[in-house]
Write a structure and sequence with these properties.
With 214 residues, the protein is of the alpha+beta class. It has helices at residues 2-28, 67-84, 104-115, 120-129, 131-134, 140-150, 155-162, 165-171, 174-180, 202-213, and strands at 33-35, 47-50, 57-62, 89-94, 188-191, 194-196. It has two domains: 1-30; 34-213, Glutaredoxin, CATH 3.40.30. It contains ten helices and six strands, in the order H-E-E-E-H-E-H-H-H-H-H-H-H-E-E-H. Helix 3 packs across helix 8 and helix 6 (140-150) packs antiparallel against helix 7 (155-162). The longest helix is centred in the N-terminal third of the chain and has 27 residues, at 2-28.
Amino acid sequence: MQKKSNSLGLIIGAVVLTILCLAIVFQSGAPVGSNSSYVPVLDKEDWTLGNKDSDVIVYEFSDMQCPACAQYHEQIMKPLIAKYSDRVLFVFRHFPLEGLHKNAIKAAIALEAAGKQNNFFEMQDLLFTRQSEWSESEDVNTIFIVYAKELGLDEAIFQTDIDSLELAAKINPIYKILSEKGFEYTPTFYLNDKKLENSGNLEDFEKILDKELN
């Protein structure tokens, strides 16, 4: 009888603890962070916007053909960068889901090619904004060359770069590498060493940044 009572007590205790944890989560109103075995480290080759001297760093791992990534870019990341770029460093990293999105790797290569002409984020904005135009194209590089022309890039250099083995070798292994580190979806965000659970609410991200900055 005593053994059964102890077991029942443990079950009730576990249920109460779970309810309390859930209550804390839902009351916070902010993305819930969880420590991860993977910790991103700022690299000199990272594409960044914002304050390079900041101790607050937001890492975004994104797929250019991912519809959710395009939505986050327009509705969350652009407003965040506009508001916090003087206090936060924003880092963009590729995570092309090659098994789901046939043009994701080519889009990542196009970004890198634009970056070689100092137009990485301009091309990123264009690709996200016009995602529906190129995402299912069978001749996507031709579309990207048109975009490069719109941005005033050297078309010949851009075309050479998007066909180069150098950029392909940089992008192609990324999915495998990040998948081995436990990445499952895009976009994935880190705040310094803490992985964030995604929220589609701009205010949630603002709250968590404000807390980190204060």
